[in-house]
Amino acid sequence: MRSSANSPCRRESGVTYSTGHDLMCGEWNMCAMTVRAVIFDLDGTLYNKSGLAWRLALSQGLRGNLRLLKREREVRKRLKGVDFGDEARFREAFFGAFGNPRAQEWYDGQYMPDMVRILRGHYRIAPWVEPRVRQLRAAGVKVAVFSDYGCVAGKLEAIGFDPAWADLIADAPSLGGLKPSKASFERLCGRLQVSPGECLMVGDRDDTDGEGARAAGMLFELLKS
Ligand SMILES: [Mg+2]
């Protein structure tokens, strides 16, 4: 990532980005803001998730849990962007919406572990990720991973991303609401100890990563895989 010391855009700490830089090749042309933290979405951003949905469906079908999986996707759509204030209230609403007493046991005990196992077996971080993260951190920029799902550290390890590369790993439920909840993005900034205006969110979905980032006042980079 280009951030030469003699660049007119260089600040004392952080990296100056443009709104049009290419994160993967490190190119950018315009000075727009100084970024002190880069927040990466996980699924579809740090790795190509092609085939993941059907692999998850197959795994849950073999366990006889397709109905729970279908319900989970419906519940996610219904709660998308809604702030519940904290993790406990989010989980109460999330599992309550299933209308199935097995939901929490299934989600925590089977679905999430199955997702980690599938990632470990079939997916790896994109080639640009490790060098880009190292360059950001060397430039004094904080790095965070922010996912709409839990088990973020386990999923990162499974795809070859060392959790130690990140200053912060967080999931939206632990912050009180799924993306694009503005409050979750703001709480994430609080944990990173940066203001939203100093953050660049990088994600593969404009309706979740982008909408939440913009609502909170962050710069957003849509990553097209
Ligand atoms: Mg994603």
Describe the structure.
The chain has 225 residues and is of the alpha/beta class. The protein has one domain: Rossmann fold (3-Layer(aba) Sandwich), CATH 3.40.50.1000. It has helices at 52-62, 66-79, 87-96, 103-122, 129-138, 152-158, 182-192, 206-216, and strands spanning 15-17, 33-35, 37-40, 142-147, 168-171, 199-203, 219-222. The strands form two sheets. It has a five-stranded parallel sheet with strand order 5-4-3-6-7. A two-stranded antiparallel sheet has the order 1-2. Strand 6, helix 8 and strand 7 (219-222) form a beta-alpha-beta unit. Helix 1 crosses helix 4. It is globular, with a radius of gyration of 18 Å. The model is unreliable at 1-13, 18-22 and 24-32 (pLDDT under 50). Bound molecules: magnesium ion.
Rg, Å, rounded: 18 Å
**Overall number of domains:** 1
Can you tell me the CATH topology?
Rossmann fold
Q: Percentage of helical residues? A: 40-55%
Number of strands: 7
Query: Strands across the major sheet, in which order?
Result: 5-4-3-6-7
How many helical elements? 8
Give the N-terminus to C-terminus distance in angstroms.
19 Å
CATH class: Alpha Beta
Question: Quick one: biggest sheet?
Answer: 5 strands, parallel
Oligomeric description of these chains:
single chain
- Let me know the CATH homologous superfamily: HAD superfamily/HAD-like
Report the structural category: alpha/beta
Strand fraction? 5-15%
Q: Give, in order, the helices and strands.
A: EEEHHHHHEHEHEHE
Low-confidence stretches: 1-13, 18-22, 24-32
Mean pLDDT: 88
Bound molecules: magnesium ion
- Please state the overall shape, judged from the principal axes of the Cα atoms: globular
